[in-house]
Write a structure and sequence with these properties.
2 domains; 28% strand; binds zinc ion; 4-stranded antiparallel β-sheet
């Protein structure tokens, strides 16, 4: 059995020559680790196909070196940070009896304000007073913004609409740009639209 992995988010905004993995082993460790850990996310390098799993507790494990198991052998120890976060974030339902663990990973939920807010990522809708946000497709008023030396016409701040672009698996909704009406991540991935 595998577990569902979270997106391998990273702070580095350049291109990433890797593919995000959707599933990974339940427990893993490399031979030098004394505890069994759990994978939070994983990626496969596009060039050499090497798999890397990021652990909930911070370090990473190379897939080809990893020992994996479905069930931890009796007496062997499990990393409490990995186990608690994996259960608390909903990767797995089984927690300690009588306690509900909770952990909210960062960057997974859509931002409070649409990344198109207060930017020029809009399409004018005639009359010049209202624009369609290119990031979330909702309609909002246009206003003059910025200071005297960097004045621009932008779409007002708004919560993300239901048409919000799908996040990049590595960078989520950070630092988006628009070209020809399409939305791009800084890594140059074009971000798709929700299917419905
Ligand atoms: Zn761990
Ligand atoms: Zn928007
Ligand atoms: Zn990206």
């Amino acid at each position: 059995m595998t577990v569902t992995l979270l997106p391998p988010t990273t702070g580095y905004l350049g291109p990433i020559e890797a593919t995000a993995l959707l599933e990974g082993p339940r427990y893993l460790r490399n031979p030098t680790m004394s505890y069994w850990h759990r994978p939070r996310s994983g990626r496969r390098d596009n060039a050499d196909q090497v798999i890397t799993y990021d652990l909930w507790c911070g370090p990473y494990v190379r897939g080809h070196l990893a020992l994996t198991t479905e069930t931890v052998p009796p007496g062997e120890r499990v990393c409490a940070t990995c186990d608690g976060r994996a259960v608390g974030a909903g990767q797995e339902g089984n927690g300690p009896t009588g306690r509900t663990l909770a952990f909210q990973p960062r960057y997974l939920t859509p931002p409070r304000f649409c990344p198109g807010s207060r930017t020029q990522m809009f399409a004018e809708l005639g009359g010049g007073r209202v624009g369609q946000c290119l990031v979330c497709r909702d309609h909002h008023p246009l206003r003059a913004m910025g200071g005297p030396y960097n004045a621009f016409y932008g779409i007002t701040q708004h919560p993300p609409g239901p048409g919000l672009v799908q996040p990049c698996p590595f960078h989520r909704w950070k630092a988006l740009t628009a070209r020809d009406g399409r939305i791009y991540c800084p890594c140059d991935t074009e971000l798709g639209r929700p299917s419905s």
